TrEMBL record:
Keywords assigned by UniProt, alphabetized: Metal-binding
PANTHER family named in the record: FOSFOMYCIN RESISTANCE PROTEIN FOSX (PTHR36113:SF6), LYASE, PUTATIVE-RELATED-RELATED (PTHR36113)
Signal peptide: none
Annotated GO MF terms: metal ion binding
Protein name: Glyoxylase I family protein
NCBIfam families for this protein: PRK11478.1
Domain of life of the native organism: Bacteria
Matching InterPro entries: Fosfomycin_Res_Enzymes, Glyas_Bleomycin-R_OHBP_Dase, Glyas_Fos-R_dOase_dom, VOC_core, YwkD-like_dom
Residue ranges of every copy of the VOC domain listed in the record: 5-127
Xref: SUPFAM superfamilies: Glyoxalase/Bleomycin resistance protein/Dihydroxybiphenyl dioxygenase
């Protein structure tokens, strides 16, 4: 038995329309399926992000995610980009704050962080 690849990542958002706009119109992920689950008063949006799917969920009044100081659990999601400068300029055109570029001391690659509408840390990693 081996685990061959990552299938999907689930994200819970506090404002469905705002996060749907961010992940589809800003980051450009393709919608695979969208449904409203009335029994849970919750949306589920399946998005294609390269070879991985993102499941975007909405729930009424979800608790805030602990992010600072570093908390145990999922730390961030990282997206590969070919040109980090162009990706930063694109995000900044949507008034999304991006941290200064850092250099990975092991690979020598450039990377940086920004946040989604619910303050989930997202990384750009130049390939």
């Amino acid at each position: 038995m081996h685990f061959s690849r990552l299938h999907h990542i689930a994200i819970i958002c506090s404002n469905y329309e705002r996060s749907k706009h961010f992940y589809t119109n800003v980051l450009g992920f393709r919608i695979l399926h969208e449904q409203y689950r009335s029994e849970r008063k919750s949306y589920k949006l399946d998005l294609q992000a390269g070879d991985v799917q993102i499941e975007l969920f909405s729930f009424e009044q979800p608790p805030k995610r602990q992010s600072e100081p570093e908390a145990c659990g999922l730390r961030h999601l990282a997206f590969a980009v070919e040109n980090i400068d162009a990706a930063i300029a694109y995000l900044e055109s949507y008034n999304i704050a991006v941290e200064p570029i850092r250099l990975d001391p092991i690979t020598g690659k450039r990377f940086t962080f920004f946040r989604d509408p619910d303050d989930l840390p997202l990384e750009l990693y130049e390939t």
